[in-house]
Amino acid sequence: MAGVTAILANGACPEHPAARAVLASAERLVCCDGALAKARALGREPDLVVGDGDSLTADGRASLGARFVHIAEQETNDLDKAFRTVLARYGRGRIAILGAGGLREDHFLGNVFRLPDFAAQAPEVEMVTDAGVFTVVAGARTYACRPGEPVSVFAPDPATHATSEGLEWPLDGVPLDALWKATLNRTTGTSFTVRGDRPLLVYRPHGL
To answer: b or e along 169-195 (b: 16 or more beta carbons within 10 Å of the residue's beta carbon)?
Structure first.
């Protein structure tokens, strides 16, 4: 994935071939500090490691030299710090977040629902898990697909109004006042479009 910056968070190590392919082909890799050992176990040396350093061994920190970006503040987590560093160093390009789940569900949900904030600064950000991919719709977005693919949509703001084309159960007029309201949909053709007056999260499983 030329031009993609991968961020490896300190969740479960990516295992699915789709997630591994993103990591292997990314142009550059930025790790949260606790994910350094995972990156090296996967055969990828990070370009930068970001965090407060509390998850690094002394040897690990020494091995990084200037590639360690120390951010001591505790108001945000290491994923947020890594994302800010990517924007500062590499700009608003394509960003793929890996390793954001698989351990504590509260951490994973917090990371997922940070995506709209990240997308406000880098619209092409996505989160790739071992099960699928989360992306953000800000306004409108069209996706290529095959008929019958599963799709779930989440509205972080319960006041959101959304419409869709190419989904078996259209979003038009659906009250999105609970997170489950637009989940477990599926595609009807070779593309689908989602529109919302507030940011939406779209989840698509791998390989289905």
So the answer is: eebeebebeebebbeebbbbeeebebb
Token pair recorded at residue 181 = 């309201």
Q: Give 6-42 pLDDT, tens digit per residue.
A: 999 999 999 999 999 999 999 999 999 889 889 999 9
Tokens of 146: 């095959």
Q: Which residues neighbour 193 within 8 Å (Cβ) at sequence distance 6 or greater? A: 140, 141, 142, 143, 164, 165, 166
Phi, psi of 14 (to 5 degrees): -55, 130
Overall pTM surpassing 0.70 (yes/no)? yes
Q: Mind listing the pLDDT tens digit for each residue in 70-99?
A: 888 878 788 999 999 999 999 888 999 999
